[in-house]
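Many introductory courses stop at the sequence. We go one step further.
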Amino acid sequence: MSRDAILSRIRRSLGVAATDIDRRATVSDRLMRPPRGLIPKRGQLPPAERTRLFAMMAERVNCTVARVADAEAIPEAVADYLRGRNLPAALRRGADPRLAALPWDGQPQLAISVGPSDGQDMVGLSHAFAGVAETGTLVLVSGEDNPTTLNFLPEYHIVVVRAEEIEGDTETVWDRLRRVYGKGVMPRTVNMVTGPSRSGDIEQTILLGAHGPRSLHILVVGAQD
């Protein structure tokens, strides 16, 4: 069945015509001015408390969280994480200029590859667009800077998020996405990641790493308080 035939059947079932001007105007208005949902109070906190809530909620869903005073400390924190997990001193990241500008030369033992993952990388490093305090969720946008493959293919995923970019709620993150990217140029994919991959399909037993990374480590930058 063709697309036009399917849409015609839907219109007939709704009792509307394709030339309904009022309905077209309603749809156009909604696209231009997307409504905001109800905002839970849990995340509506001062910045320092919001950051603490984000870390607490992330840890509840099996993330590990470390705080660093500034971006310069990220390479050392990454190296410490790899040593602590007895992982190879190697990782893959995207072309994000914020990650590229870090003092990686201070960790000469680290082998860093750049680009999308082909599934052979043990560790991926990404920079989040934002965090959501009420759920401990990371918001990651697709593109060369932070390829989506890094979110799902490596066994271990390290994500950097700046404390000032941790919002109280999802709606505020979407508001910022629209401001930063604008209509018609939004990222192809926005991934909202809450904890490492998991499944309870087999005997209702939670298994980490079922469909993606088995470990999610978050580095919160500028969160010292």
